[in-house]
Specification:
Helix content: 25-40%
Number of helices: 18
Largest sheet: 6 strands, antiparallel
Strand order of the largest sheet: 1-2-3-4-6-5
Number of strands: 28
Strand content: 15-25%
CATH superfamily of the largest domain: Transferase(Phosphotransferase) domain 1
Oligomer: single chain
Low-confidence stretches: 172-185, 305-358
Number of domains: 5
Length: 630
Amino acid sequence: MSQDSGDTEVIGRVLGGRFRLVTRIGPGRFTDVYVAYDLAASRRVAVKLLSEDLLPDGWASLASRFLEAAGEAAAVSHPHVVGVQSWGDSDLGLYVVSDYMEGGSLLGMLDAGHLLSPSQVLMVGLDIARGLEHIHRQGIIHGDIRPSNVLFSRRGRARLADLGTSWALSSSEREGALMARSVFSSIDAVRYASPEQAQGLTPDHKSDVYSLVLVLTEVLTGRVPFDSEDPEYTQMAKMSRRLDLAGQFDRLGRVLEQAVRPERDDRPTARDLGVGLLAAAESLPRPAPLPLSKPGPEIPDTGESAAATAPDRQPEEAVPKASSRSGGRRLLAMVVTLVLLGAAAFGAFKLWDNRFGTETQPVPDLVGAADADLSRIENEFGWVLDRREQRQDGTVAGQILRQAPQPGTGLEQGKTVTVWISLGPELVSIPGNLTGLSIADAEEALAAVGLSAGDITERFDEIAIEGVVIEVDEMLLQLERESRVDLVVSLGPPPRLVPEIDAGMSLAAALEQLEKAGLEALEWRVADNNVEAGHVLRVEPLPGTEVAANSVVSVVVSDGPEQVRIPFLATLGAEEAAAILEATGLCRGEIVGPPDAEVLATNPPAEAVVDFGTCVSLITRPEEGSEEEG
């Protein structure tokens, strides 16, 4: 079946009664990726579909591991990790549903011919390093970082995708069995792998760091380090060589080189990589907007959902801000004025040179000139320009603060003119104690250092109570005064689902299930004639109901059969006595004596309290003369 005909059969199908496939994005390593529409939540999602035809015969365990990895990924919640919403099996195969990233992927940027600037690479690397640090703290290894797994939101924030599912299919002995059926070659399998993965060893958190830096280096330089057409050569190169950027990219280059070491112990952790990237940020300019993908396909209105073509989404900023968020018309006017003054000053300098030029030229007053004018002065007068940058309050970025030699000093060609150029006002540090504070207290702490709160993102958190800050969502630790700082605030623990607790389950097992779900139990005991004492009759609310964390679930437990008092049956006939026993909830046992005689007594005796359903023996009057014969 061709791909086109296969897509025709798939598009429009609904998975799990909820996710309608809209269009195919493209292939993953072992899956097909689709844009789908969540009919329940009225929004776009991404679906990775693993056809069972891909799995070799007898490899049902792979399907189980694939779904298990999806479940582990769904438990991860972080701004720089793509969230998994659902997973399951269908007649089209196994599937995983995740957030739809409208900004596309790093692979899409590379395929479109885009490379990123050092500032852009630093911004992307810091986002993914934060995501890695989070999953590593939870004991999760990604194991398959590549450009297609680095996705972007509409704001250009990077997120790590495909958490664990590709690794579940490709690790160790599974790789060879599946690679022949994959759309990717064996070269691709080792292109972003760490040296230990190339040797068939189990990857760890530093393996993820290695792979991430290979990806960042590729999008910075256009080439994957150590890559060749021979997979064996690629593996050997990674095990014996270090990354050498030939002194390019200054501090950023040194951070990348340090992270791509053959020996695991020599590499930084994800947290250390983030610290190194932050240190390199100060020497880089503000990043330009990323070349994000265009918005995704419109969702056709089929009438399945009232909001099928208009998901309720708030507009976001197109690009994250790096070193400064302040500015405004006042600063813009100052910069324009400086440029105009600089241009006028340069014209005067050039006129003076044309009329009275000598071998020694007086140094003009450069304060107020623009950077472009400085370059022209350097070329026209033959001086060497030494640019030195610093921060100073009351200045704007690009403003020339002072110079040496002083204006009017005669200077020959080839001599050096030093200018000090402003990077803008002095930076202030974001307070380090914001996490754990309420929003009001965090705003007060920010205001004390000249900052203010920016966008507030809410996120569930297992530990932090509702309404407190759990993360500062900023790339840099220092910002200009009056900058806005984005914060992540806790919504408290996420809601829980009442677990599946069936009637007849032991109380101990039910309590264990509720504890795992983060719910408390309240026991109610009632008599029940059908369920053994100490076993569950039902739970309230019902299984599958969504409740708040730490909610109390009532567990109704059997206290055993109800108690029944044996009626007085003496003088009655055996049949009449049996009818009364049955009406009372008891059964007739054996008849001791003639079956047609009247009842003298019962065993157990009348007025005795017994369990519901107990069988009672009837003792009847013996026939006349039987006692003498005895």
